[in-house]
Amino acid sequence: MKHNILESFDQIPYFTIAGYKQISGADESQSQLVRETLSRWVKAGHMIRLKRGIYMTRRFYDRHQSDNSFAPAVSAILLAQSYVSLEYILQRSGVLTDVTYPITCITPKNTRKMDNAIGSFIYHHIKIPLYNGFSQENYYGVKFNQATLSKALFDYLYFRPLPQGARTKRVDLAGDLRLNIEHFSPEQRAEFTKIVIDSGSMKMEFVLESLQRTTWRH
């Protein structure tokens, strides 16, 4: 019976306790038994607990963990009002190459970190006017948001403290931070410029000036 029930969820990224009850035929009087059963299956390795009350089967994980959209979709399952950005996007695009980063996201909600068997998911709070610059995608029915490369760069520099002495005309900000952004297209540079102007941030205006004076001179 266990394997028959789990097979019902092998083709979808996640299921809830309510979904399990519906498939298994359990009623409210069996809620405690259901939770104990799910907890036991997690410990046995048959399932992964994404967060309280939400699970993924081990089979789905094994089949899809290498998909490009897998981790971004999980980030949306954990916190729907968010978009993947910052180090995660920059590393995948070759802008950052030094280390491996957790799944980094932006949200208008409070800053938080969520850990599960899949990895660490970090959500940085941003004010509503700056909650933009992303597109929506679909992964096995899960809608998730993903920043453009220009917005991911903006978010990264917006949250990152500038190096000591950075506010001088001589600084090469991209070089100091080891950012590989020479390959940004004219369209991506124009998008970054527009995001900075729209933000009204004096810090980001300085950042833009530095990038245009050094890395994006041509």
Structural class determined from secondary elements: alpha+beta
- How many structural domains in the coordinates? 2
Major sheet: arrangement of strands: 4-5-7-6
Report low-confidence residues grouped into runs of 5 or more: none
> How many H/I helical runs?
10
Biggest beta sheet summary: 4 strands, mixed
On the 0 to 100 scale, the average pLDDT is 92
Which radius of gyration do the C-alpha atoms yield? 21 Å
Shape: elongated
Q: How many distinct beta strands?
A: 9
Explain what this protein looks like in three dimensions.
With 218 residues, this protein is α+β, with helices and mostly antiparallel strands. It folds into two domains: 2-64, Arc Repressor Mutant, subunit A (Orthogonal Bundle); 70-213, no CATH class. It is 42% helix and 18% strand. The chain contains ten helices and nine strands. The protein has a four-stranded mixed β-sheet. Strand 6 (112-115) and strand 7 (120-125) form a beta hairpin. The longest helix has 14 residues, at 31-44. The protein is elongated and about 70 Å long. The model has no long low-confidence stretch (mean pLDDT 92).
